[in-house]
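Supplementary Methods. Inverse-folding protocol.

Structures were first reduced to a discrete structure-token string of length 512. This string, shown here, constituted the complete conditioning input.
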């Protein structure tokens, strides 16, 4: 679809048409409403989390809290069961664009497990309950001089979501996906028993848990690797003016034996991109510090775009600011919500009010905004082999023409589980992240997404499960290897107690 020309008045005067017209052509009115509501919501959300944490936080009582989960599972069986179980966490609190309508038909199990249980600096591990957030974890570890090897971007992402779904960051070319830094999982199973699994104690269950989306059991704790951290990231910006040049530099920097700690690329058009490489550093060169996390600073993707005209450069960013460099602008989604939000006056006066929480946007989403969001918007992360990256960019440009595009490399080891790269050795993949309003004329969300999904299957790639999927069950099984998963579901008696993954992640199950 092309960019709509400005119209003073709507074509029709019914409520839906007027609301759509305001959202599309007079968005500043929407923003005037959104920002104060967002501020109040942040205060409420912060207070709510404090209350939940105060009532539920008790690291020394982990066993008692797990026993409460087990009690609920047994209660499910006592009253008859059959409808299946899921966590009681409301769908609007998740990172997925949809509201998880399937939860309305299932038996809710409260899993209020919010604590960091143990940090072992000798073993270099941290043990967490599933509702520990990335913000909570970084705040705790950073003060001690530690971090986790892969720290996904948004503060509100939870350990449980990153295990059961997936997580990726710009260090993934060295460490893999979030599941690859996890050492053990503790789960409450369909029969109410509690088990712990690792690659040594129960490799089949250990490898089946990631990407299972809560359909094998309820996650109650995870042990994760930690590594020493440093104060800054020394970040190099390398602008490129052709896709061939970008691909050459991106692949070279990713696969070097002495590769940087962080590698990513922002693609701004079919020709222009900026490759970034970063390394942790203890100190900063004078005049090169950029505290990009400050409220008045330019949005990071806009800051990076400047290097297309100014040329190569290097600067130092505080580590926590780097980890959350895309948070203030929700990557670049914020430009579709607040088009003038990167204006210097707006940033200084009101920049501290953004971003609005994703959960707020979902909670206040009426049917008109929901329809616009579903038909004129796309959020997708497709994981494709490095050798198919050029063709992937061509497909996305042809179908949606959304820019920027986020490129994040990751290594995929030949482990059992849902992700089967059909290779006997470790293979390099790239997360192609596309978020925003399609600019391609004639865009239609279902047909465009299905064409992209078909291409990803053809190159033996994968679609992140948080995103809208229009695949059939057969196509989904073609993309994801269910052999180990099916074996574990039979062994753990999951049928009738937990739905299959497809029944939770397909578009119909989520939107109703």
């Amino acid at each position: 679809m092309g960019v709509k020309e400005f119209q003073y008045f709507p074509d029709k005067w019914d409520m839906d048409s007027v609301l759509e017209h305001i959202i599309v052509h007079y968005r500043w009115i929407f923003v005037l409403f959104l920002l104060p509501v967002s501020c109040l919501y942040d205060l409420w959300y912060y207070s709510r989390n404090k209350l939940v944490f105060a009532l539920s936080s008790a690291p020394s009582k982990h066993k008692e809290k797990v026993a409460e989960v087990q009690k609920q599972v047994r209660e499910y069986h006592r009253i008859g069961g059959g409808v299946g179980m899921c966590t009681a966490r409301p769908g609007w609190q998740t990172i997925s664009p949809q509201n998880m309508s399937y939860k309305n038909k299932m038996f809710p199990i409260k899993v209020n497990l919010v604590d960091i249980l143990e940090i072992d600096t000798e073993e270099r591990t941290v043990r967490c309950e599933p509702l520990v957030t990335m913000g909570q974890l970084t705040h705790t570890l950073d003060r001690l001089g530690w971090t986790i090897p892969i720290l996904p971007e948004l503060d509100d992402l939870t350990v449980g979501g990153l295990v059961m779904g997936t997580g990726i960051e710009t260090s993934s070319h060295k460490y893999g996906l979030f599941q690859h830094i996890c050492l053990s999982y503790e789960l409450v199973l369909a029969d109410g028993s509690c088990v712990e699994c690792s690659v040594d104690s129960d490799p089949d269950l250990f490898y089946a848990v990631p990407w299972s989306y809560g359909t094998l059991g309820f996650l109650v704790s995870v042990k994760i690797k930690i590594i020493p951290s440093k104060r800054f990231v020394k970040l190099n910006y390398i602008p490129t003016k052709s896709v061939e040049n970008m691909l050459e530099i991106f692949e070279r920097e990713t696969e070097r034996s002495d590769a940087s700690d962080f590698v990513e690329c922002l693609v701004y058009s079919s020709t222009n991109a900026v490759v970034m490489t970063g390394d942790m550093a203890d100190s900063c060169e004078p005049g090169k510090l950029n505290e990009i996390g400050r409220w008045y600073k330019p949005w990071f993707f806009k800051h990076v775009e400047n290097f297309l005209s100014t040329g190569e450069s290097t600067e130092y960013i505080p580590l926590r600011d780097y980890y959350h460099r895309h948070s203030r602008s929700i990557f670049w989604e914020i430009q579709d919500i607040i088009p003038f939000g990167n204006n210097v006056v707006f940033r200084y006066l009101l920049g501290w009010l953004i971003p609005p929480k994703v959960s707020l946007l979902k909670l206040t989403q009426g049917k008109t905004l929901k329809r616009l969001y579903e038909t004129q918007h796309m959020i997708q992360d497709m994981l494709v082999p490095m050798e198919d990256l050029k063709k992937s960019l061509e497909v996305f440009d042809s179908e949606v023409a959304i820019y920027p595009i986020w490129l994040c490399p990751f290594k995929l080891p030949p482990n059992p589980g849902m992700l089967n790269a059909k290779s006997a050795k470790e293979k390099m993949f790239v997360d192609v992240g596309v978020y925003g309003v399609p600019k391609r004329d004639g865009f239609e969300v279902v047909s465009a997404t299905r064409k992209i999904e078909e291409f990803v299957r053809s190159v033996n790639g994968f679609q992140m499960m948080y995103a809208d999927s229009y695949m059939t069950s057969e196509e989904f099984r073609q993309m994801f290897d269910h052999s180990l998963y099916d074996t574990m579901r039979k062994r753990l008696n999951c049928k009738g107690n937990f739905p299959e993954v497809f029944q939770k992640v397909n578009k119909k199950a989520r939107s109703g």
